[in-house]
UniProtKB/TrEMBL annotation:
The keyword Transferase applies. GO terms for molecular function: glutamate-1-semialdehyde 2,1-aminomutase activity; pyridoxal phosphate binding; transaminase activity. SUPFAM superfamilies: PLP-dependent transferases. This is Aminotransferase class III-fold pyridoxal phosphate-dependent enzyme. Belongs to the class-III pyridoxal-phosphate-dependent aminotransferase family. PANTHER family: GLUTAMATE-1-SEMIALDEHYDE 2,1-AMINOMUTASE, GLUTAMATE-1-SEMIALDEHYDE 2,1-AMINOMUTASE 1, CHLOROPLASTIC-RELATED. Keywords: Aminotransferase, Isomerase, Pyridoxal phosphate, Transferase. Pathway: Porphyrin-containing compound metabolism.
Length: 430
């Protein structure tokens, strides 16, 4: 198999120099572990539409799309113009602002459970506070999550993220016994574990499409079964829709699956490319975050932070959601492109891969050993991840196509069918 390192290094000499400087200043040269790949990541100088441009002027069709947050593409006109107008007024108030109210009105109408909302600046914070709120409401301590479920770098939920799921993910984490892990898409196996901890179970947090764990949709039956147990047990059902919210349709995915969550977390798309995390839920639950007149023992400090609900993030989010609301054809277009991509990639590799995903999200899993399907994170982890990274790196170095090596791809409204065809052609030549 051809080694593309030399081709990559010839094309990215300026990136190499700049990243060497970054490595002296930043841990491993990056501020997010997943952004590093061998021999070094190229350095971006600009982006527009579907493309990233690096400091050596190489152009890449981007399928990473800002951690999957840029559903309209880079620098979309409506969002950009809204941001310019807001920046002329100022970009930081640290007080109540009308921009927040406008965004919340859109979210509350599109997401039925969003009877009350709190903003933070990342999805990580949103899930952290959701878990805290569940414990406050129920008076219980244990939270269940999914094997392979990713909810950010929170100490509470940084467990059973990577294979093997029984090993600690990091040093410095305490109270790991308060987090239990259940198998994805295995209702009987999950219920068996949940029943053991029922008395002290505060809640279950689940992604309806397992993002970092392999871009794997949950079955409707699985989610409904978990929800039924949780509600009968007087625990809380928390859906992490940070990746899936406003990705497949205008709103969340849970209503079309007939689910009734207590808390939903949002992020990525609802910020339009700016820093955001959203925790929303039923009024009677969210009211626990109202600390006025409550004893310390009754309080649930939830949400906040210096940059929470800042006017720039709120403006960017409002512009993005307004565009999606007025042009819902965006969804039929990108979902169709996603289906086309999954189908054609399967054809190219003819039984050697499983392509998971939903709508405009897709991920290629190179099969090995006895793996024939990918319906959970265990199966995903046992696929050939090195082959996937080589596949992605070949496209970066040779074809001008960017996937963050080893991660799922996201299609934006800036992509066309011709772009997908080019990606398929690059796959054929792998």
């Amino acid at each position: 198999m051809k080694n593309y390192n030399l081709e990559y290094k010839k094309k990215t000499k300026t990136s190499a120099k700049i990243f060497a400087k970054s490595s002296k200043l930043h841990v491993h040269g990056v501020s997010h572990n997943i952004r590093f790949y061998e021999p070094y990541p190229f350095v971006v100088k600009s982006s527009t539409g579907k493309n990233l441009v690096d400091v050596d002027n190489n152009k890449y069709a981007d399928y990473w799309m800002g951690h999957w947050s840029l559903i309209l593409g880079h620098g979309q006109k409506n969002v950009k113009e809204s941001l310019k107008k807001q920046i002329d007024k100022s970009w930081m108030f640290g007080t109540v602002n009308e921009q927040t109210i406008k965004l919340s009105e859109l979210i509350s109408k599109a997401v039925p459970v969003a009877e009350k909302i709190r903003y933070v600046t990342s999805g990580t914070e949103a899930t952290m506070y959701a878990v805290r709120l569940a414990r406050s409401v129920t008076g219980r301590k244990i939270i269940a999550k999914i094997d392979g479920g990713w909810h950010g770098y929170t100490s509470d939920l940084l467990k059973s993220v990577n294979w093997p799921f029984t090993e600690p993910e990091s040093s410095g984490i305490i109270n790991e016994e308060k987090i239990i892990s259940i198998p994805y898409n295995d209702l009987d196996g999950s219920l068996k574990i949940l029943k053991k901890h029922a008395k002290n179970l505060a809640g279950v947090i689940i992604e309806p499409v397992l993002g970092g764990g392999g871009c794997i949709p949950a079955s409707k039956e699985y989610l409904i079964g978990i929800q039924e147990f949780v509600h009968k047990n007087n625990s809380l059902f928390i859906l992490d829709e940070i990746v899936t919210g406003f990705r497949f349709r205008y709103g969340c995915i849970y209503p079309i699956m007939k689910l009734d969550p207590d808390i939903v977390t949002l992020g990525k798309i609802v910020g339009g490319g700016m820093a955001i995390g959203v925790m929303c839920g039923k009024k009677e639950i969210m009211e626990y975050a109202d600390t006025v007149g409550k004893k310390k023992s009754e309080r649930s400090y939830v949400g906040g932070g210096t940059f929470s609900a800042n006017p720039v993030s709120m403006t960017s989010g409002y512009a993005t959601l307004s565009y999606l609301k007025s042009k819902k054809s965006v969804y039929s277009k990108i979902n169709s492109l996603g289906e086309f991509a999954r189908k054609e990639i399967r054809k190219v590799f003819d039984g050697k891969v499983v392509v998971t995903g939903k709508g405009s999200l897709f991920m290629t899993h190179f099969l090995k050993d006895d793996i024939t399907e990918v319906t959970n994170a265990v199966q995903a982890a046992k696929c050939d991840s090195q082959m996937l990274q080589r596949y992605h790196f070949k496209m970066i170095s040779h074809d001008g196509i960017f996937f963050l090596p080893g991660k799922l791809g996201a299609i934006s409204n800036a992509h066309s069918k011709d772009d997908i065809k080019k990606m398929i052609l690059a796959s054929e030549n792998f």
